[in-house]
Amino acid sequence: MTTIDTGSLMAMRNAILQQNSALQKAAAGSDAAPLGKGGAKEAGFAGTLSSAIANVNTLDQKAGAATEAYERGETTDIAAVMLSREQASVSFQATLQVRNKLLAAYKVPRHITFLESLPKSAVGKILRKELRPISSGATDAAPKVEVAG
Hints:
Elements: H1 6-30, H2 44-72, H3 78-102, E1 111-115, H4 128-136, E2 144-148
Antiparallel strand pairs: 1-2
């Protein structure tokens, strides 16, 4: 028979309760979300996804700033730096898991190609016909960076 350490069990319970209250506060705070482009509050999945991605980006920027401050010697608290990096990493992984659960497999891109600029016509419209060979890898018309998704 296994023995259960009551101290670690209570610590896990407290951590779960804290996460639950943080999620409830976040859900209550999303009701007072800022106004979108059209002047109305972004609703539904798109607004939730946008705020989640913005949150991941903010955490990543804070982690980067904390790391740079540590490297410059402005702070000596390595624990705070590592905690911020882990928070950013966990939030990114959670976002990927949500994406994987919500999107069908055929909707998730396998590769993403970043271009320095899009091919445009004289009036400024994007030339989609020129994008097709670039995305398929048939030509090296523009410098690109490929990221596996």
